[in-house]
Structures are given as structure tokens and as C-alpha cells.
Design a protein that fits this description.
single chain, about 325 residues, Rossmann fold, 5-stranded parallel beta sheet
């Protein structure tokens, strides 16, 4: 796999400290270790990350351009020069929403306590409530000197795109532009579609098309937990609930996955949220469906809302190995 989560286990303090051009060279070496070359878009963004005067960096670009890999590699290269707090967007909002009522600032302080650098991955804002929380976090952090490294599929101006609410976040968009280096990670190719395989984690998973025969649960990798789509995605669960489940189980099976066009908007969004948290925690996922991934994700004729980040879902599912015909999954 072009950008396997080979660094998933990096600690908040690791390796020898590096600076400036040495960090750039280290990131290039990490790419060589993973047997791929940095894209021109990644190289351009790497130059932005190396800017010594930056208060932080906002990396944005289309899905699958290597933003998360680049951010994680940069953190690894920094080594002991920085104590890092890494949060996925779902984990970030979960932490804020679970804090004591009326003590948001204290919760923010707890989330970033002791950090020199906060890496917030997959930063996106569609909900006005989340946007107001994010704005409060940014306003709390700006005076502290804590550096920020954000990755997003959206330019700052595209955050909270609903025109009825966009103005609420505009002050923070201006601040992001003024305080952070905003760098696009460009490119014409979704790198996840290049394949390459993986021996563990999400990218080692499979998508089996067709009928499924029951088998002994002991055949499941790492004693995978199994759900039907209806059990997991068609019952009331928040993204935070899915994150809690993903933390408890390292291998997953999701069976009887329908076309999303045949489900309700809430089920579609839960499916997209599930893929997000499983990828971020690098959990193996084996799926079975009567349909191929592109057929499941085709929502052109869907009634009601569809997930705004479905392109990211499709990009991530392209990491799975697809096979047709009959397969074997746990009963």
C-alpha cells in the first residue's frame, strides 16, 4: 500500500531531533522505506511545512493525495523537538462533547495539555454546532503558542459550506489564513487507488461480492467482531459510538451491505463514519455485499441527504481487495 500506516505506533516523543532541511530529508527517507516516492504535491507541501516562521500549517487537498501520511511523517521527523497530540476529527469532537457541561475551556485545555504541536487529521465542518466548538478551540489556542497542523479535504473557505451558517465560522477562516501556512497538496491521482497491498490493518481487508457461506468464527482474523449492515448502520449510533466500538475491536466483518441508495440518510452517514474511524485506527475490515463498491456508493438517485464526504469513503474503500463470487465469512 502506497501509504500504509507503518507509523501508526509513533509516540509523542520519538527518534533523534531534526530541524529544517534534515526534517525534509527524513520524510523523503521514510517514503523510500515504504517503497514509494513523494508526489510533486507532497514535495510542495513539505516545503511549506519546513517554513521555520510558521505558527502552524493547514494542509488541504482532494481525497487520497497523501496529506495524512505527510503530516504523520513530519511529526516523526520532528522527533523530540515536539510533544505532539494527534487527534482525528471524530475523536476531537468526541472529547469536546464529553467534557463537563459549562467547562468547555477546561476540556480544551485537557485535550491539548502538555502539547507543543496539535495534529488534527481530517478536519471538516458541516454541523454548525461543531463549527462553534472548533472556533472556540482555535480562539483558545491562538494565544498559547501551541502549533497546529491540520489536514483537510477542504480549503478554509469551504468549511461549514451551508450558506445559512457559513458566516458563523468566517472569523476563524480569516484567522486560519492569517496565522497558519495554508498549503494545498495537489495532484491528479488518488494514491489509494494505486494499490500495493498491506499485511495488516485496514488495507489488508477484503470486499467480497456475491453470496456468502457461513464458517467457523475461529476462521476470522484476530477473532473479528461481526455485524450486519442493518445491525450497525441502521440503528441509532453516533460517530462517537462507532469510535468507541472501533477502539475495542481490532478486526471487523461487515456483511449484507446494501446499495446506499436503498437506505435512509442516517444509515448512509453511519456507514461513512464507520469507514472513517476504522481507517484512522487502522482496523482490518472484511466486507461482503451483493454489489461492488462503486455500486454501493452510487447515490445519484438517492432520496434525502447523502454524506458530504462520500468521495473520501470511496477513496478509502479502494484500499480493500475486491473479489467476486462466493466467499467465506463468519456466521
Amino acid at each position: 500500500m502506497w501509504a500504509s500506516r507503518w507509523m501508526r505506533g509513533w509516540s509523542r516523543r520519538s527518534t533523534a531531533p531534526l530541524t529544517g532541511p534534515q526534517c525534509v530529508a527524513a520524510v523523503e527517507a521514510y517514503a523510500a522505506e515504504a517503497t514509494f516516492s513523494l508526489t510533486p504535491g507532497q514535495r510542495g507541501a513539505l516545503s511549506g511545512l519546513a517554513n521555520p516562521g510558521a505558527r502552524g500549517t493547514y494542509l488541504f487537498g482532494e481525497v487520497g493525495r497523501g496529506k495524512t501520511w505527510l503530516a504523520d511523517a513530519w511529526v516523526r521527523a520532528l522527533g523530540e523537538r515536539a510533544t505532539v497530540r494527534r487527534l482525528h476529527a471524530v475523536e476531537f469532537f468526541q472529547g469536546l462533547n464529553r467534557g463537563p457541561v459549562g467547562h468547555v475551556d477546561e476540556t480544551i485545555d485537557d485535550l491539548v495539555r502538555g502539547a507543543d504541536l496539535v495534529l488534527l487529521d481530517e478536519f471538516h465542518l458541516h454541523d454548525p454546532g461543531d463549527a462553534m466548538l472548533a472556533q472556540r478551540v482555535l480562539n483558545r489556542l491562538w494565544p498559547t503558542g501551541v502549533r497546529l497542523l491540520l489536514t483537510s479535504n477542504y480549503a478554509p473557505e469551504q468549511l461549514l459550506p451551508n450558506p445559512s451558517f457559513h458566516h458563523l465560522f468566517e472569523p476563524s477562516i480569516v484567522a486560519i489564513r492569517e496565522r497558519l501556512d495554508v498549503v494545498e497538496v495537489g495532484g491528479d491521482t488518488d494514491l489509494r487507488t494505486l494499490g500495493g497491498g498491506a499485511s495488516a490493518g485496514f488495507a489488508s481487508g477484503t470486499w467480497t461480492v456475491g453470496q456468502v457461506e457461513p464458517s467457523d468464527p475461529s476462521d476470522a482474523p484476530d477473532q473479528a467482531v461481526q455485524f450486519t449492515f442493518a445491525e450497525l448502520c441502521s440503528t441509532p449510533r453516533s460517530a462517537s459510538d462507532l469510535l468507541d466500538l472501533a477502539r475495542r475491536h481490532v478486526a471487523w466483518r461487515l456483511v449484507d451491505v446494501p446499495r446506499l441508495v436503498d437506505t435512509d440518510p442516517q444509515s448512509r452517514q453511519r456507514f461513512a463514519d464507520l469507514i472513517d474511524v476504522l481507517v484512522d485506527l487502522d482496523r482490518r475490515l472484511d466486507m461482503t455485499s451483493a454489489h461492488r463498491p462503486d455500486e454501493v456508493l452510487d447515490v445519484a438517485d438517492a432520496e434525502g441527504e447523502v454524506p458530504r464526504d462520500l468521495a473520501r469513503t470511496g477513496s478509502r474503500l479502494s484500499l480493500l481487495t475486491v473479489s467476486g463470487g462466493r466467499g467465506r465469512l463468519c456466521a
